[in-house]
Specification:
Blueprint (H helix, E strand, L loop, with lengths): L1 H20 L1 H14 L5 E7 L5 E7 L15 H4 L2 H8 L7 H7 L3 E3 L25 E3 L12 H13 L3 H17 L19
Parallel strand pairs: 3-4
Antiparallel strand pairs: 1-2
Helix pairs in contact: 1-5
Length: 201
Protein backbone atom coordinates (compact mmCIF):
# COMPACT_ATOMS: atom_id res chain seq x y z
CA UNK A 1 0.00 0.00 0.00
CA UNK A 2 2.74 2.46 0.91
CA UNK A 3 4.80 1.79 -2.24
CA UNK A 4 1.83 1.94 -4.62
CA UNK A 5 -0.28 4.72 -3.11
CA UNK A 6 0.84 6.52 0.05
CA UNK A 7 4.42 7.23 -1.04
CA UNK A 8 3.28 9.23 -4.07
CA UNK A 9 0.69 11.15 -2.01
CA UNK A 10 3.29 11.92 0.65
CA UNK A 11 5.80 13.00 -2.00
CA UNK A 12 3.37 15.45 -3.59
CA UNK A 13 2.21 16.93 -0.28
CA UNK A 14 5.70 17.44 1.17
CA UNK A 15 7.14 18.78 -2.12
CA UNK A 16 4.29 21.30 -2.46
CA UNK A 17 4.72 22.74 1.04
CA UNK A 18 8.53 22.58 0.82
CA UNK A 19 8.44 24.74 -2.32
CA UNK A 20 6.32 27.28 -0.47
CA UNK A 21 8.65 27.32 2.54
CA UNK A 22 11.84 27.53 0.46
CA UNK A 23 10.48 30.00 -2.10
CA UNK A 24 12.48 32.96 -0.68
CA UNK A 25 15.70 30.91 -0.81
CA UNK A 26 14.75 29.69 -4.28
CA UNK A 27 14.39 33.26 -5.53
CA UNK A 28 17.63 34.52 -3.93
CA UNK A 29 19.71 31.60 -5.28
CA UNK A 30 18.13 32.00 -8.73
CA UNK A 31 19.13 35.67 -8.85
CA UNK A 32 22.68 34.92 -7.64
CA UNK A 33 23.22 32.17 -10.19
CA UNK A 34 21.66 34.30 -12.94
CA UNK A 35 24.50 36.78 -12.61
CA UNK A 36 27.19 34.14 -11.98
CA UNK A 37 26.25 32.10 -15.06
CA UNK A 38 25.46 34.78 -17.61
CA UNK A 39 21.71 34.56 -17.30
CA UNK A 40 21.48 30.79 -16.87
CA UNK A 41 20.49 29.92 -13.27
CA UNK A 42 19.12 26.46 -14.16
CA UNK A 43 20.11 23.51 -16.25
CA UNK A 44 17.91 20.75 -17.60
CA UNK A 45 19.27 17.30 -18.31
CA UNK A 46 17.73 14.05 -19.52
CA UNK A 47 17.71 11.31 -16.88
CA UNK A 48 16.13 7.84 -16.77
CA UNK A 49 13.43 7.42 -14.16
CA UNK A 50 10.90 4.75 -13.23
CA UNK A 51 11.16 1.81 -15.67
CA UNK A 52 13.96 3.74 -17.44
CA UNK A 53 11.54 6.35 -18.79
CA UNK A 54 13.48 9.49 -19.72
CA UNK A 55 12.57 12.84 -18.14
CA UNK A 56 14.27 16.23 -17.77
CA UNK A 57 15.69 16.89 -14.33
CA UNK A 58 15.79 20.51 -13.10
CA UNK A 59 18.77 21.70 -11.06
CA UNK A 60 20.48 24.95 -10.17
CA UNK A 61 23.42 25.56 -12.49
CA UNK A 62 26.49 25.52 -10.21
CA UNK A 63 29.14 25.48 -12.97
CA UNK A 64 29.73 28.00 -15.75
CA UNK A 65 30.38 27.15 -19.41
CA UNK A 66 33.97 28.33 -19.71
CA UNK A 67 36.07 26.58 -22.36
CA UNK A 68 39.75 26.24 -23.17
CA UNK A 69 41.45 27.64 -26.28
CA UNK A 70 40.36 24.56 -28.24
CA UNK A 71 36.71 25.07 -27.42
CA UNK A 72 36.49 22.24 -24.89
CA UNK A 73 34.80 22.73 -21.56
CA UNK A 74 37.18 23.18 -18.65
CA UNK A 75 37.18 20.61 -15.83
CA UNK A 76 34.32 20.57 -13.32
CA UNK A 77 36.60 21.99 -10.61
CA UNK A 78 37.60 24.93 -12.82
CA UNK A 79 34.01 25.71 -13.84
CA UNK A 80 32.51 25.50 -10.35
CA UNK A 81 31.58 29.09 -9.41
CA UNK A 82 31.97 30.51 -5.92
CA UNK A 83 28.23 30.74 -5.35
CA UNK A 84 27.83 27.38 -7.06
CA UNK A 85 30.20 25.79 -4.57
CA UNK A 86 28.15 27.21 -1.71
CA UNK A 87 24.87 26.05 -3.26
CA UNK A 88 26.29 22.56 -3.75
CA UNK A 89 27.85 22.37 -0.28
CA UNK A 90 24.53 23.26 1.33
CA UNK A 91 22.60 20.99 -1.09
CA UNK A 92 20.47 23.94 -2.19
CA UNK A 93 21.00 22.79 -5.78
CA UNK A 94 18.44 20.05 -5.12
CA UNK A 95 15.53 22.47 -4.46
CA UNK A 96 14.34 22.76 -8.11
CA UNK A 97 13.90 18.99 -8.20
CA UNK A 98 10.86 19.46 -5.98
CA UNK A 99 9.17 20.48 -9.24
CA UNK A 100 10.12 17.07 -10.68
CA UNK A 101 8.54 15.46 -7.60
CA UNK A 102 5.30 17.39 -8.12
CA UNK A 103 5.22 16.26 -11.76
CA UNK A 104 5.70 12.63 -10.76
CA UNK A 105 9.09 12.23 -12.46
CA UNK A 106 10.80 11.74 -9.12
CA UNK A 107 10.21 10.87 -5.49
CA UNK A 108 11.64 12.62 -2.46
CA UNK A 109 13.52 9.42 -1.62
CA UNK A 110 14.91 6.84 -4.04
CA UNK A 111 18.01 6.01 -6.10
CA UNK A 112 19.54 9.15 -7.60
CA UNK A 113 18.73 9.58 -11.32
CA UNK A 114 21.93 9.19 -13.34
CA UNK A 115 22.82 9.72 -17.01
CA UNK A 116 21.03 7.91 -19.86
CA UNK A 117 24.34 6.68 -21.31
CA UNK A 118 24.88 4.59 -18.18
CA UNK A 119 21.84 2.41 -18.95
CA UNK A 120 23.73 0.13 -21.31
CA UNK A 121 26.56 -0.26 -18.77
CA UNK A 122 24.47 -1.66 -15.91
CA UNK A 123 24.42 -5.37 -15.19
CA UNK A 124 21.04 -7.04 -14.65
CA UNK A 125 21.14 -6.44 -10.89
CA UNK A 126 22.13 -2.76 -11.15
CA UNK A 127 19.24 -2.17 -13.58
CA UNK A 128 16.84 -2.92 -10.74
CA UNK A 129 17.46 0.59 -9.37
CA UNK A 130 14.88 1.72 -11.97
CA UNK A 131 12.09 -0.36 -10.45
CA UNK A 132 11.18 2.67 -8.30
CA UNK A 133 11.05 6.42 -8.94
CA UNK A 134 14.44 8.13 -8.56
CA UNK A 135 14.80 10.42 -5.57
CA UNK A 136 16.26 13.75 -4.47
CA UNK A 137 17.97 11.82 -1.68
CA UNK A 138 18.34 8.11 -1.12
CA UNK A 139 19.90 5.23 0.78
CA UNK A 140 23.19 5.57 -1.13
CA UNK A 141 23.29 9.33 -0.46
CA UNK A 142 23.04 8.95 3.31
CA UNK A 143 25.62 6.15 3.24
CA UNK A 144 28.40 7.91 1.37
CA UNK A 145 26.92 9.92 -1.51
CA UNK A 146 29.72 10.69 -4.02
CA UNK A 147 32.51 9.53 -1.68
CA UNK A 148 31.78 5.81 -2.26
CA UNK A 149 32.47 3.64 -5.31
CA UNK A 150 29.93 3.12 -8.07
CA UNK A 151 29.69 -0.58 -7.18
CA UNK A 152 28.84 0.20 -3.57
CA UNK A 153 26.39 2.91 -4.61
CA UNK A 154 24.47 0.49 -6.84
CA UNK A 155 24.43 -2.15 -4.11
CA UNK A 156 22.82 0.38 -1.78
CA UNK A 157 20.32 1.43 -4.46
CA UNK A 158 19.16 -2.15 -5.00
CA UNK A 159 18.98 -2.71 -1.24
CA UNK A 160 16.59 0.25 -1.08
CA UNK A 161 14.41 -1.20 -3.85
CA UNK A 162 14.12 -4.47 -1.91
CA UNK A 163 13.47 -2.74 1.43
CA UNK A 164 11.27 0.19 0.43
CA UNK A 165 8.92 1.05 3.28
CA UNK A 166 7.69 4.04 5.25
CA UNK A 167 10.22 3.36 8.00
CA UNK A 168 13.10 3.11 5.50
CA UNK A 169 12.06 6.41 3.91
CA UNK A 170 11.71 8.06 7.31
CA UNK A 171 15.21 6.89 8.26
CA UNK A 172 16.68 8.27 5.01
CA UNK A 173 14.79 11.54 5.49
CA UNK A 174 16.20 12.07 8.99
CA UNK A 175 19.72 10.98 8.02
CA UNK A 176 19.69 13.42 5.10
CA UNK A 177 19.48 16.40 7.46
CA UNK A 178 22.58 15.17 9.28
CA UNK A 179 24.51 14.74 6.02
CA UNK A 180 23.50 18.17 4.73
CA UNK A 181 24.46 19.81 8.04
CA UNK A 182 27.91 18.17 7.98
CA UNK A 183 28.35 18.55 4.17
CA UNK A 184 29.51 14.93 3.97
CA UNK A 185 30.23 12.98 0.78
CA UNK A 186 29.58 15.83 -1.64
CA UNK A 187 32.48 14.86 -3.91
CA UNK A 188 34.96 12.10 -4.51
CA UNK A 189 38.50 12.70 -3.31
CA UNK A 190 40.29 14.82 -5.90
CA UNK A 191 37.08 15.49 -7.85
CA UNK A 192 34.57 18.36 -7.88
CA UNK A 193 31.74 15.87 -8.21
CA UNK A 194 31.96 12.16 -9.09
CA UNK A 195 33.98 10.43 -11.79
CA UNK A 196 32.01 8.99 -14.72
CA UNK A 197 30.66 5.43 -14.53
CA UNK A 198 32.43 3.20 -17.07
CA UNK A 199 30.69 -0.08 -16.34
CA UNK A 200 31.22 -2.87 -13.83
CA UNK A 201 34.04 -5.36 -13.98
Amino acid sequence: MYKKYFKRLLDFTIAFFALLVFSPVFIIVTIGLYFANNGKPFFFQARPGLNEKIFNIIKFKTMNDKKDINGNLLSDAERLTRIGAFVRKTSLDEIPQLINVLKGDMSLIGPRPLLPQYLSLYNHIQKRRHEVRPGITGWAQVNGRNAISWTKKFELDVWYVDNLSFMTDLKVFLMTFKKVFKSEGISQEGQATMEAFNGSN
